[in-house]
Structures are given as structure tokens and as C-alpha cells.
Amino acid sequence: MNAGELQRRVFEPLTREPFIHQHSIWDAIRQRLPIKQAQLSSSLVELEHKLLKGHVLLCVEGATDALSMPVQSMLQRGIEEPPSETTVRGAHEGFVESLETNASLLRKRLPSPDLCMESFILGSQIPSELKMFYLRSRAEPSLLEEVRSRLQKLQTKDVLSSGEVEQWIEDAPWSVFPTIGNTEKPDKAAAQILEGRVVLLLDGDPTALYMPHLFIESIINTEDYTSRPYYVSFIRLLRTLSYFFSILLPAYYIAMLNFHKEMIPTALLPKLQESSAKAPFPITLEILIMIMMFEIVREAGIRLPKSVGSAVSIVGALILGQVSVDAGIVSPPTIIVVAFSAITGFTLTPVADVIALLRIANIIVASFLGLYGVILFMLGVLVHVVSLTSFDSPFLAPLAPLYLKDWRDGFVKFPIRWLSRNPRSLHDRQRVGWKK
Description:
Order of helices and strands: HHEHEEHEEHHEHEEHHHHHHEEH
Number of strands: 10
Largest sheet: 5 strands, antiparallel
Shape: elongated
Strand content: 5-15%
Distance between the termini: 54 Å
Structural class: alpha+beta
């Protein structure tokens, strides 16, 4: 901000006429300034952070606090739909890198006096501002205290992204399952707040974190609530089946060919054996090679510019698959199994990384122990998931613990008039006491 603009917007309104003390000198100053986002604070850490962000600080002799004014003019990206959370019916707004803009997007959707906002300064050397949003009438005090405690214990020199905050405060940092949800859509963040959750927004990051987060939410999409329940229920069941197909199909294919040939239909067995006999590698190595090739093509498609990324992904996958079969490196059934497993994994993008890791782990287990090993491994995963919590809420609820009323908005969706904005899975936090 140049000196002329500072003179026009700050100094001239304050020096135009003498002050008449009424209730507070700060109230009189705020009435004269054209800057409506001015904030009064007595915290030196917060004021230092505001100053480093380009704010102007106004101090009054004898006062123990100061007024910070965001008079800087910074360019920012326009509000547009997030590419990873596109919708056909519903809002097309997305968060941006400006914390003030993101906060206004939430306030626009939740114009209630119950909406509370608390600020935190993270990072000892390079401070970053984080805001916590919740509804006073719906969020549990114990949840708020737990979130505040973890944020205050966050000890790092700098915080550059919401992903770093997530890894610092999550319940199980060594688990492959995320216990904190994230979104770039203001409507989804507002819906989480209405259910009594807490939403965190970090300055400079367009991704909002919300907690508690449940496993079943991986199969639920924001657009589900704008559609009728019948087709939505069908799609959710399809997503659930896709989750298991993506994780287990390659492992089952390996186990049946190597250990359990009696499970393959008689008419299909000779064709599978003939195809496998022509390939130079064992079936496990075939599967792993194709999965690695697919992951490389997918990663390249994501990192390349949009104009060529999709073309490279499609053409690269077709060429690699066709050439691999023609060269006799892999068999056609292997291509079908890997392709179907990869495609079904994209139906649940929030847990795509978890699906990829569990798929490879099941393949390795199936190559040594067959279906018995896969069953034992998945039982171990189930025990692990049951033991997880998200800010003291059971991660696998409403399945474990069992909340039958919350099943109305789970694998199937009941009509909207039967749904509740107060799910017991999130608010019954005493059921996890056996863990402590």
C-alpha cells in the first residue's frame, strides 16, 4: 500500500476533526475508518503476525491493545469449482487461498449468531493463521477442548499446508486410514458444521479440515443430498462394492490360479491356464508389473498440464496394455483384472491412496498364503479400523459401535425428512471409554 492511499484511508479520517470521548476511543476510531475488517487485539503474537501479513497497526498511548487493519491489496485466485470435487447439481463454489475470503464463504452459508470463529497462530519462526469454525449450539464442549488442546500443542517452526496440520493433530498418525476429513467446497464444510463438527481453515490453503471424520463418509457425496433417495442408495451400494472389488480382485485372481483352482469355472479354467502359460513371468509378478505401470501413467497424467494430461493417461494406458499383450509380457486376463480393479478404485477418490496400498498388500499376501492369507489379513485390517477413533468418536460408527438410527444415511439413503442433522455416531463419545 503506497503512502498516498494510507494517508487517504487512515490518516485523513482520523485527523479531520477532534475526538469526542464517549464510550471507547476504539469505537470512535472504528466509526471514522472506512475499513470494516479492523480487529482489536492485545496479543503481541497475533499483532506481530498481522504486521508481517501487511496489516497496518494503530496504537493509542496508554492503551494495552492495538487495532489491526487489512489495508494491503493482494491478488488472489477467483472463486471456482474445485477440480477434485465436481458436482452436476449443487453449488459450484470452492475455497481459495485467502483466509478472509474462505471465512466469508462460510458466513454466507451459515448466517447465524451461533457460528463461532477462533484464531490460532501456528509456527514459531514463520507464523501462519488458522481459524476454527463451529456452531456454539451444536458442537460438543469436549470436542472443542480437544481440538484447541491439539492445536496449542502443535510444535513446529512453520506450517505451509493443511496436510501438515492434519498429520500433527490426527489420532493415529501411523495408520493408512485418514481420521480427519478434508474438502474444498464451502457447502460441504457448512454441512459438517451443522452436524456439530469443527472445521479448520489455514491461511494460504484452499482445503478445509473437519473432524470428527467417519469411515462411512468415504462412500457419501455432497451431491447425494440433492437427489432422490432411490438412485442415491443404488450408487452408494455400488461404491461399497467397488471398494472391495478394487482391493480384493487382483488378490483373489492370484489365489485362485495358484492355490484354489477348484473355485474357477470348468469352462474358464483351460483358457486361464493357457494364457498364463504363454506369459514369461509368474502371475504375481505380472499383476505387480501392470499395477506399477498403471500408477506411473496415472501419476504422469496428474502432473502434466490439463491439455495433455488426460490424453497421455488414456493413450498411455491403451498402448502399454496392448503392447504388453502383443509382446507376450502379460496375459489378457491379467489386463482385465488390473484395469477393472483400477477403475473401481476411482469411485472413492477420498480413499484412493488407501485402496492402492491395501491392493498391493493383498496381492503379496495372496501370492504366499492364498485366500486364507487374504482373509486373515483383512480381519487384521478390520480389527485395526475398529480400534481407530477420530477425536474420540468411533471411526467405524455406525457399524461399530452399532447405531441403527444412523443407518438411514449410510450405505443407503432414506428420504430427507427422516434424516437428522444430529447423528449419534458423532455425539455419543462415551462409547469409546473401553479403549482408555
